Amino acid sequence: MMAQTSANAPLQGNATEVNTQGSRPRPDYSKKFKEGKFFYYIIDEAAKTVGVAPANGMDDDMYIKHMEIPETIKHMGNTYTVTEIGPAAFSNCFYLLSVKIPNTVKYIGDRAFTGTALESITIPDGVEEIGDDCYNGCIKAKQLTIGKGLKVAGRDPFIGCWDLQNITVDPANPLYASKDGILYSKDMVTLIKCPAWRTAVTEVTLPSTVEKLGNGAFEYCEYITNIKLNEGLKEIGARAFHMCVSLKTLRIPATVEKIEDGSAFVLLRDCKQYEVAEGNTHFETMLDGQLLVDKAEKKVVSILYTMATDKLTIPEGIEAIGDKAMMVIYENNDTEYDYRGRGRYCVELPSTLKKVGVFAFSGTNIRSAKVPDGVETIPQGCFDDCKKLNYVSLGKGCKYIGEGVFNNCDAMASSANSVLRVYAVEPPALLKDKEGKDVKPFEEKMFLKTTLQVPSASLDKYQAVAAKGWSDFLKVVALEEQSAETISADAPAIVTLDGALSVSTPKAGLVTIYTVDGKQLYSTMQSRFTVELPQGIYLVTYMGKSYKALVR
């Protein structure tokens, strides 16, 4: 999952970061043609100019290994000059290692090199403009070199370039500057990108001129233990400190006025607490620095990551949990292995809560969640990728539910013990997407496994065809007849796989698996394990309680 970013943020320099695609017509790739190793589209027939188009992605048409774009090409008896690289021209060409760009190219389009395997990024002197997300996700690039001609850059052109070791900028460039290998706006007001893969650099001190940290400014700087933020800093962008796992502490200066969202602080593993400088009128900390809070909005901006499993209770008086406040992103197998299944099992929300942000708890290790009555909307991705989540209750005031709220919630989709309890008398309405269509909060498997508990007087409403999304649940029961603690944070997360049973317990204890006729098959004290089993129904016992599991 990749963090969403704000568009059209000014760079405060002699040139600006803008949304570039709106300034030019989008190429018609349906009319592209191939000459030599590349596909092209005609920009201006009278001027005889062309741009590089995406390949067809099959066999010899793929862009792979080392490529060199020519200055001119011959087509239908005419000579054309190559002046552009079109939007997404090389996007997701996973085996593309380098592209030599001629000085005739003036413009590189949105997402042109997104997701490629470029070993280095060189923007030659002739290039004047690059688009949004131009080099997003070039995770293997070690060096970024920017020539003197670049005047305009789109949104977040270098975000996701995790392996950079150095950045150099031609001193004559009007848009960017480089100091100590770090990329800044020309006037040194915005810090745009710090190379992440510098093992010898453990401390960074920001210049006094810096007012903004751009999106992804220090993302994946795993070796940095101390970043000294300057007084005068006003804004912290999304993903600014994402995966700074060795950072020991983070002190927010008194001058900071804006933090984009909680994605700025994902997986600060070694950071023990947030600190806010005295005199900051916008932010404060709570719970010994575990919470970073917006004072005016009474909003938790970020819940500090911890590998501890104890419950966190959000204080009464808090009215909002911000976008991505507790989100954990697993962007590669190493991150998945190191952090999946670790972290808090439960976050207790206050009765004063009125709003929860998008992806607020996405990817976390929580096992249960109880949303208070004052929250009207469960927004997009709120519990997305919470693999162990098996009990959720939504309060009486819930009116709307968004896209993908329960996507990738494996326990909810596979455990017969999972429960979704809704206290609202009227079924919460599905939000609409940009096209006006109903969104899908639930995965199909949830309809088969999860028990939907609703007020007895509302059973017919939730089961009616008009109750879009809700009427698809096969097991709908009156909540008055069920215990509110049917599933708790102390219960094991049981996930059934093809021919296997995976169990994760909140703390060490004897776990035993039986057949339905009482024959013991497996017993362990491990808190996480997977055991292969034939198809059938099994009983899993833990802490004096039994749970049914169906293996297909």
Write structural notes for this entry.
With 552 residues, the protein is mainly β. The chain has four helices and 45 strands. Strands 1, 2, 3, 5, 6, 8, 10 and 12 form an eight-stranded mixed beta sheet that branches. A six-stranded mixed beta sheet has the order 14-15-16-18-20-22, with no helix packed on it. Strand 15 (182-185) and strand 16 form a beta hairpin. The chain is globular.
Layout of helices and strands, plus pairs?
Elements: E1 33-35, E2 38-44, E3 49-53, E4 65-68, E5 72-75, E6 78-85, E7 96-100, E8 107-108, E9 120-123, E10 129-130, E11 143-146, E12 152-153, E13 166-169, E14 176-179, E15 182-185, E16 190-193, E17 203-205, E18 212-213, E19 226-228, E20 235-236, E21 250-252, E22 258-259, E23 274-276, E24 283-286, E25 291-294, E26 299-303, E27 312-313, E28 320-321, H1 333-339, E29 347-348, E30 355-356, E31 368-371, E32 377-378, E33 391-394, E34 400-401, H2 410-414, E35 419-422, E36 429-430, H3 444-449, E37 451-454, H4 459-463, E38 475-478, E39 493-497, E40 500-504, E41 511-515, E42 520-524, E43 528-532, E44 536-542, E45 545-551
